[in-house]
Amino acid sequence: xxxxxxxxxxxxxxxxxxxxxxxxxxxxxxxxxxxxxxxxxxxxxxxxxxxxxxxxxxxxxxxxxxxxxxxxxxxxxxxxxxxxxxxxxxxxxxxxxxxxxxxxxxxxxxxxxxxxxxxxxxxxxxxxxxxxxxxxxxxxxxxxxxxxxxxxxxxxxxxxxxxxxxxxxxxxxxxxxxxxxxxxxxxxxxxxxxxxxxxxxxxxxxxxxxxxxxxxxxxxxxxxxxxxxxxxxxxxxxxxxxxxxxxxxxxxxxxxxxxxxxxxxxxxxxxxxxxxxxxxxxxxxxxxxxxxxxxxxxxxxxxxxxxxxxxxxxxxxxxxxxxxxxxxxxxxxxxxxxxxxxxxxxxxxxxx
Length: 352
Known about the structure:
The chain is of the alpha+beta class. It has helices at about 15-45, 55-80, 85-125, 130-155, 160-180, 180-195, 235-240, 265-280, 280-285, 315-335; strands at about 10, 10-15, 205, 210-215, 220-225, 230-235, 245, 250-260, 290-300, 305-310. It is rod-shaped and about 135 Å long.
């Protein structure tokens, strides 16, 4: 008469079932024990150190390690039942794939931890917000790469031919790239903006004939508010392929005006007019001290004065020009300097 442990259940003796249960329960409790050790002892020790590296290592490895221990116990438990060569081979393949995914899990958690602990604080200290928008995308791309490699390595270790799979992925990737060519071009354009930093939010730029202030920098497109107060959406690929003029980078805005006064003003009038123009910084606060002016040409019906001044950065463009022109007009009128206008002398005679 067979003993109690030799009794058959599902075609296998009870002893094998108990052994399998011990392996599975042992792996589960081993994972619980590791988690307890990490939470109660190792974390307290790591908190006393100055750097954050040990805290990051504990945070990223705790759960995957618990998963691997439970997985190992489950594998030993199933193998203890001696399921047969075919089933055992399937279990081994599944085990290799799951272990590779667990390693990929660790790598993905490392990417998240490094990004949160080191990269994100650096990004938040920068002036623009393009890098803030790119960081989640870069993190997602890196994690997709990690999970893809982990899956391929797991399949390779399990004995599968990944060469055909990679070839299929390559053909599919080419098809996707061709279908999303414009999207990819705009994405690379956003990386160009991020790396070269030709402008930032709030800068006034000129690109492809559009003159406006940058109000938004996205992954696919960027938006400019034109001088007509209209929003223009520009694909980021245009910034990589076109010259960009950053108007906001200039220290001041150069203005050139031409003033025509009458010949009756004479040399004395010209001197008084130039003195008035050189004194403009004392009358208008939003222009630079540097003034360039002079008698530039003798026109057909006027003496032409060239007047060059610079609007300070941040000052109102139209408001400053208006203030300068009003001040010039008032001073010229006070000095009796007259502006010229085109004249024509018509001589008529009678033939004899």
